[in-house]
Structures are given as C-alpha cells and as structure tokens.
Prior knowledge:
- By secondary structure, the protein is an alpha+beta fold.
- The chain is built from 4 helices and 3 strands.
- Strands 1-2-3 form a 3-stranded mixed beta sheet.
- Strand 1 and strand 2 form a beta hairpin.
- The N and C termini lie far apart (60 Å).
Amino acid sequence: MPREFSRGRRIADLIQRELAILIQREMKDPRLGMITINDAKVSRDLAFADVYFTVLPKNGAKTAEEVLNKAGGFLRTKLSKMMSTRTTPKLRFHYDATIENGARISKAIDDAIAQDTSKRDRMDS
C-alpha cells in the first residue's frame, strides 16, 4: 500500500509555501505583478521543481515568467536556507493558464446551453 504523502509531495508543498513568501517579501522587481504560486511538482530524483503560477494583470504573464526564471538561482539560494534537505531542486517557473481555460470552457458551455434553450423556445412557439 503506497504512502498517502510521498517525500516528493511534501517537499513540493514546502517549496510552494516558501516560494510564495519569498516572492512576496524578497522580490523587488517592478515588472512583477501580484504573483500566486498555484502548484509545485518535484522530479523523482528531487533535481528539478516545476513551479506553476498565475499573475495579475494577466498581460504580464510572459514577462513574469522570464523574471522568475532569471531569479531562480536567487530564490533557490534563499530556499536552501529554509529547507533541511541535502540538495535544493533547480526551479523552473511556468505560467498556469488552467483558471483562464476553465473560465473559457465554462463560458462556452453557458453559451451552448443558452443557444439550445433559445432554439427550443423558438420551436415551441
């Protein structure tokens, strides 16, 4: 029976929490908007951590991704002082578009339902 929380998942959760604090307190780059760390996934060998984030305003996503990836070494150094692991994973930041995609799909479903309802109303009259 597998353990409920693997070591990799616990490290990913720690990275997610600590990076959210570090980015808020330590990053002074004016190109960054309001960053939210949505998820972190650590490779099996704990060499890499893929960090998924969203940013407000949305049009700054590409710039924020570049800034965060360039600051990855700085953030990794700060993170290593907080973690009690032998190595700290190399950070790779990715913009997380799942919220936008979910909203777009939800709107498409609502539009389809509205269109279907209006067709049904025209057929009934």
